[in-house]
Amino acid sequence: MERSTDTIHREQSGCRTTGLFPRALAALLLAVFSMFTHAQESPARTVYFAGSGNAPLDQHLVQLLRDKLEPALSLTEVAEDQLATLGDGPIITVGPAAFSRARQANRSAHILAMLVEKSFISGFAERNPGQITGVLYDVPLIRQALTGKAILPQATKVALLATADSVELYEPLIDELPSYGMSARIFLVDSNDKLIPTLVRALGYGDFLLAAPDSAIYNPRTIKHILLTAYRRNQIVIGPTQAYVKAGSLASSYAPFPEMVELANEFLETFYESGKFPAPAYPEEFRVEVNTQVARSLNIPLPSREDIATRVDRQLTVNGEASDE
């Protein structure tokens, strides 16, 4: 029996349709396999964390970092004996000692240092651009000076103590102050036994004493004597850190931990986009710590911490210095 032409055409069409299904299925399976293979080849990115040894501080930073980092990044805490095995990192270190340990153990590692001062990390970053960076922990001295002026609006003279080795810390500040209607004078401390006599001369000159992160001058052994001497002469000390405010300094600006973590996250994003870290930088936002008891004892009207920080930010913006921080 002969088949009709229509029947033959339908059978041929059916064969062609049936042949398409295995090919489509094969293509789909190939795509799924390719995606699976690619996922295996691109595991979650790991950021290593080398702590300071201060457990409460380290855990606080770990929690802040894990809350901030994008889901594709995994933060892994490592011990000192693991640093040499981490390849090229990146490694987040906390404090100068942790940075030094990581740097010595692994010269090829990309390191993001936190809680380090500009004077400590700048040289490493300049010699190893893109490989080493830092979220700076100290406060720009111009910001500290303006913190003092926000509390004492009539202040025009800033007293500075320094050793021969630390004079250079203050040179940029001395150049910047005239733009804000202030000037500064450095009083050199030649030896430990000359500290208090030199301090007395400095207090007689300045409207307030500005303390820098200079451990040769300001340290646990000397700070009590410095603060008592200033207090007895009805003079205030500004800086260098929050810890010194608790000890008796009147005020200090500082960068809050969430702001430092925010900047660290931005640095990591840049690293994974370009393979290089940006240069060390300060966080964008600073706050102010004050000692209200010292203010009352010296009969100094004290604006709120928020008002002081706002005044400082306004001055920096008006004078075009905010971008330099």
Key features?
Rossmann fold, 5-stranded parallel beta sheet, 325 residues, 47% helix, elongated, disordered C terminus, alpha/beta
Question: How would you explain this protein's 3D organization?
Answer:
The structure is a single chain. The chain has a five-stranded parallel sheet with strand order 2-1-3-4-5, sandwiched between helices. It has a four-stranded parallel sheet with strand order 7-6-8-9. The chain starts with a helix and ends in a 7-residue tail after the last helix. The longest helix has 37 residues. It has two domains: 112 residues, 3-Layer(aba) Sandwich (Rossmann fold); 155 residues, Response regulator (Rossmann fold, 3-Layer(aba) Sandwich). It is α/β, with parallel strands linked by helices. The C terminus is likely disordered.
**Which structural class best describes the helix and strand composition?**
alpha/beta
Strand content: 15-25%
Q: Alpha-carbon distance between the termini?
A: 95 Å
Uncertain parts: 31-42, 321-325
Overview in brief:
The protein has twelve helices and eleven strands.
Layout of strands and helices, then pairs:
Elements: H1 5-41, E1 45-50, H2 55-68, E2 73-77, E3 91-94, H3 95-105, E4 111-116, H4 118-127, E5 132-136, H5 141-151, E6 157-162, H6 171-176, E7 183-188, H7 195-205, E8 208-210, H8 223-232, E9 237-238, H9 242-247, E10 251-254, H10 257-274, E11 287-290, H11 292-297, H12 305-318
